[in-house]
Amino acid sequence: MDDLFTIDCGEILLREYRIDDADAIYELTSQPEVYEFLPDFKSTREQRLDWVTNYEIPSNKEFLAAVPNIDKQTYLRLGIILKETGKFIGFCMTGIKEELPAPNREIAYAISKHYRNRGYTTKAAKGLINYLFEKTNVELLNAVALTRNVSSNKVIQKSGFTFVGEIEIENQKHYHYTLHKNEWQDNKEIQKLSTI
After folding, report:
1. Is 1 domain-assigned?
2. Residue 90 CB coordination number (10 Å)
């Protein structure tokens, strides 16, 4: 277990998927609060185990092996783990969003209804953003959220993204945001100065 990739985000960790996460991911993606906004993530328990075992874990290994040059890598999916209990409470990921103009790497996330409004999702998003800009060749990140998904839009804004405009994906209106590496670096410098 100790050899799994992790990112420390304070109260939470981002951790590479394990096979025994399949049930927790299945439970999470079965919550109406999650599949309303991420319908493609809904599955049967058997499908989820198959996806985690045969697609998501191998994809994570390929992604991490390619760092820092992740241009051709599709997805890195990380569990959001509550440090205090070791519980899998959500996920945060990066991947290519085909519906967006290039460069179209995005970040996305979901958190259990039992752990909302505690800042965990924003911590996870910032942790993944920091990793991507510090350790890989990513220069631009995207985020999209349905216009009605108030919580997700707040997380994106708190994570430093800039609103670009509306975009239609699968006949639904989304807000589209971007974050450039140089903007992120400038924000980090401003944050450092404000803590001195």
Report:
1. no
2. 24
